[in-house]
Design a protein that fits this description.
The structure is a single chain. The protein is α+β, with helices and mostly antiparallel strands. The chain has a domain of about 100 residues: Immunoglobulin-like (Sandwich). Helices cover about 25% and strands about 40% of the residues. The strands form 2 sheets. The protein has a 3-stranded antiparallel β-sheet, with no helix packed on it. Strands 4-3-6 form a 3-stranded antiparallel β-sheet, with no helix packed on it. The chain is elongated and about 110 Å long.
Length: about 150
């Protein structure tokens, strides 16, 4: 019986060595690379961006006045620009807000152009002012639409 154990132990060791070699050699193979072609989306090059800046906040008697300007920082014309005036007390708490319609539908602000605006309030506890551009409409085809209207009115 002792004679049978060494050949079995040797056989088991040989099998274990073969299995270990198989796994070590198998891990050296690189994973297959799958190529996927992706189409680059075409991005719309038109961009709208209107900023509002406060240039002055002053009080005269019972009236507080905020002055500022809007700028078209995009690359398409805009119309119907609305600015929100923000009225704050001495603690920075918003007391009231107002709306300033800086541009109407007939007015156009071209890229790079600016336009001034102002708003007033008669609230007594106003200590600070601020403004922000609230809304605007992009008008890429404004000139083409106006030319078409001119032709139909003739």
């Amino acid at each position: 019986m002792l004679d049978r154990k060494p050949p079995i132990i040797i056989a088991v060791l040989v099998v274990l060595m073969l299995v270990a070699l198989y796994f070590f050699l198998e891990t050296d193979k690189p994973d297959p690379v799958i190529r996927v072609e992706v189409e680059t989306p075409v991005l719309d090059s038109s961009r709208t961006w209107v900023s509002a800046s406060m240039t002055k906040c002053s009080r005269s008697g019972t009236v507080t006045r905020v002055e500022g300007h809007i700028s078209n920082k995009g690359n398409v014309p805009v119309t119907m620009v609305t600015v929100q005036s923000i009225w704050k007390d001495k603690y920075g708490t918003v007391v009231d807000t107002g709306l300033v319609y800086v541009l109407s539908e007939e007015s156009v602000l071209q890229p790079g152009e600016t336009k001034t605006f102002m708003d007033t309030t008669e609230l007594k506890n106003i200590a600070r002012c601020n403004v922000r551009a609230l809304d605007w409409w992009a008008d890429e085809d404004h000139d083409a639409n106006r030319r078409q209207l001119d032709r139909t009115e003739r």
